[in-house]
Design goal:
By secondary structure, the protein is an alpha+beta fold. About 30% of the residues lie in helices and about 20% in strands. The chain is built from 13 helices and 16 strands. The strands form 4 sheets. It has an 8-stranded antiparallel beta sheet, with helices on both faces. Strands 4-10-7 form a 3-stranded antiparallel beta sheet. The longest helix has 14 residues. It is globular, with a radius of gyration of 20 Å. It starts with a helix and ends with a helix.
Length: about 350
């Protein structure tokens, strides 16, 4: 394997505004390529290294979904269960119909709707978060009062569904999400560099890549602030490194079993996770051509539509500031990419990088 094309692409990223980036490629759980470019801190000329930490934002969602799927395997819920069976505050929901009227929902929000972003809960709400949210329980109480955008299960809409799933995990386990993630995922996999942002130590904060906004016209970077979540945001609150998150992706790629023998999920549950769960109507709402949406992950369903050379069934997700991962059980391949840029340029970088990586195998 020759990854010169990948290196060339990584080195070219500075030309489109990426301050710094890290990439790890893994085959059968072994690192076969690692490359860093640019700076974690432009002003201080601090380079990106293998030890750089990144806010991974929505890559948190997949950790949350895996944590919840472990409870599915224990029989703690069925995907078809109404979440009101476990969280009574969600039993009486309303939505805005096509006529603009707010009416009672005829269908309950089911657990599967949380996984598949089919609840009708968006990121656009009128909840004043700092005033009412201090933890996942208060978050759930607040979000249960919003007006849904549609009848649950009928459409696809990106939003707070996985944060609600985190609240469900807490309700079922009696543990904080951070505790459950640590006990069942991070500690067994040796992920000692992955944690919620609000718990970052001063030592680790110094390893955190800066967030930059980039002005393409003036070709200048402006330092931006990391989000300061006051609660354990299960939809976007984790910090990790490329190598640490790869321990998680490699376990999923290896039929759910980590290199140390720890079983994260069963092979059958992973197959369920990466199956497209969207009906024809909801597929029209989903934005990635050639991909469907499973239980918290995109999943490759049509090469002709996607224009990608990845195998059918390749799956993964991305983060708001430019983090991205892919898992391909057929090729026994995973890779994790990270930068911190607003806008992220995901639409330009992610598909190109994927095609280049596959061309090198």
């Amino acid at each position: 394997m020759d990854f010169k094309r990948v290196t060339g692409f990584m080195e070219s990223l500075k030309d489109i505004g990426v301050a710094g980036a890290d990439l790890g490629v893994y085959l059968k759980g072994c690192e076969v390529y690692r490359h860093q470019v640019g700076y974690a801190d432009i002003e201080a000329q601090t380079p990106i290294t293998q030890n750089t930490l990144f806010a991974i934002w929505s890559m948190t969602k997949v950790v949350t979904c895996v944590a919840a799927l472990r409870l599915l395997e224990e029989g703690r819920f069925l995907l078809t269960d109404p979440i009101g069976d476990y969280m009574p505050e969600f039993r009486e929901m309303v939505y805005k119909n096509e006529a603009g009227e707010v009416v009672p929902c005829k269908r309950p929000i089911r657990v599967v709707d949380l996984f598949t972003m089919s609840t009708g809960v968006s990121y656009e709400t009128d909840v004043e978060w700092p005033d009412v949210v201090s933890d996942l329980a208060s978050f759930a109480a607040a979000i249960s009062k919003v007006t849904l955008h549609f009848e649950p299960g009928t459409r696809w809409l990106y939003g707070f569904s996985h944060d609600i799933l985190g609240a469900l995990i807490e309700r079922l386990t009696g543990k904080k999400a951070s505790e459950y993630f640590h006990d069942k995922i991070f500690a067994p996999l040796g992920m000692d560099e992955t944690f919620f942002h609000q718990y970052i130590s001063a030592e680790n904060a110094a390893r955190l890549a800066n967030v930059y906004k980039y002005d393409a016209e003036t070709r200048t970077h402006t330092k931006d602030n990391h989000a300061n979540w006051d609660f354990e945001n299960c939809g976007g609150g984790l910090v990790s490194s490329v190598a640490d998150y790869a321990k998680f992706t490699n376990a999923l790629c290896n039929r759910g079993t980590a290199a140390n023998g720890y079983r994260l999920l069963s092979k059958t549950t992973i197959e369920l996770m990466r199956t497209n769960h969207l009906c024809e109507t909801r597929m029209k709402d989903y934005w990635q051509a050639g991909y469907g949406y499973g239980l918290g992950v995109r999943t490759h369903v049509d090469k002709a539509q996607s224009g990608m050379n990845a195998n059918i069934g390749e799956y993964g997700w991305a983060g708001y500031l430019g983090t991205y991962f892919a898992i391909d059980p057929v090729a026994e391949l995973t890779y994790v990419y990270a930068h911190q840029l607003s806008p992220s340029l995901e639409g330009h970088i992610a598909p190109r990088l994927k095609n280049i990586i596959y061309s090198c195998l």
